[in-house]
């Protein structure tokens, strides 16, 4: 004869449908809150999408294309502990806050950067293309660009973009500053008009064009 066991639930432990519903709603709300926190942390500190407005970066970027901007390396490089991070290189495409217009951001190309900040390690300025005196000199001459008296080769420009009506001018870069130009020089507002930009203006480096889907590409 087999023994049988009858399972019964204590009345106090019977799930109340209303309590169960409240519990599930609470778990869902917590999930949404954590998702929003993660989303804003990623957007503020790591990577963010932007829409290009205007023709100043044609043919590299076209009006209404959407790009991803990597922020984390530049943010980290501003702290002494991570000062060794080289967040931006010459010719990188960068998004930055306008130095002369509030609540406006630009996307341009880094044409030159100031010399490396002094550190415990000795740096050969000549190998870095920098002025040992602590500055970098950028000259604009009717479309031609010279960095410390050496003319830049700019293969990303169309032939008609290599000449402009701008008179000869100069820009001096110190550590933590950048010269930025649009690829479409004849219509671009850039360092020729508002001067150099500071580290504090930089948002991050544009790394990918993701819209429209037919134009997905890495940015160089």
Tell me what you see in this structure.
Helix content is 20%, strand content 27%. The chain has 220 residues and is an alpha+beta fold. Strands 1, 2, 3, 4, 9, 10, 11 and 12 form an 8-stranded antiparallel beta sheet that branches. A 4-stranded antiparallel beta sheet has the order 7-6-5-8, with no helix packed on it. Strand 3 (93-97) and strand 4 form a beta hairpin. The chain is elongated.
CATH architecture: Ribbon
Sequence stretches where pLDDT stays below 50 over 5 or more residues: 120-132
Percent helix, as a range, is 10-25%
Q: What is the CATH T-level topology? A: Umud Fragment, subunit A
The structural domain count equals 1
What CATH first level would be assigned?
Mainly Beta
In terms of DSSP E residues, the strand content is: 25-35%
Count helical runs.
4
Global geometry: elongated
- CATH superfamily annotation: Umud Fragment, subunit A
Strand segment count:
12
Class from helix and strand fractions? alpha+beta
Mean pLDDT: 86
What would you report as the Rg, rounded to the nearest angstrom?
27 Å
Largest sheet: 8 strands, antiparallel
N-to-C series of helices and strands: HEEHEEHEEEEEHEEE
The span between the termini is: 82 Å
């Amino acid at each position: 004869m087999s023994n049988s066991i009858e399972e019964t639930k204590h009345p106090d432990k019977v799930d109340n449908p209303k309590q169960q519903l409240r519990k599930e709603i609470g778990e869902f709300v917590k999930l949404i809150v954590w998702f929003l926190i993660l989303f804003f942390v990623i957007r503020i500190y790591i990577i963010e999408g932007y829409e290009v407005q205007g023709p100043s970066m044609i043919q590299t970027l076209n009006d209404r294309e959407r790009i991803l901007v990597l922020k984390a390396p530049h943010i980290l490089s501003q702290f002494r502990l991570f000062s060794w991070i080289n967040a931006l290189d010459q010719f990188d495409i960068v998004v930055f806050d306008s130095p002369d217009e509030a609540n406006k951001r630009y996307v341009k190309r880094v044409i030159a950067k100031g010399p490396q900040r002094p550190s415990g390690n000795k740096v050969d300025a000549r190998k870095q293309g920098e002025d040992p005196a602590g500055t970098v000199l950028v000259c604009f001459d009717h479309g031609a660009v010279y960095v410390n008296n050496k003319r830049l080769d700019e293969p990303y420009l169309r032939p008609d973009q290599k000449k402009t009506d701008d008179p000869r001018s100069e820009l001096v870069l110190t550590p933590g500053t950048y010269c930025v130009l649009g690829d479409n020089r004849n219509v671009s507002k850039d360092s020729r008009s508002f001067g150099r930009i500071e580290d504090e203006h930089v948002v991050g480096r544009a790394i990918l064009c993701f819209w429209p889907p037919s134009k997905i590409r890495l940015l160089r």
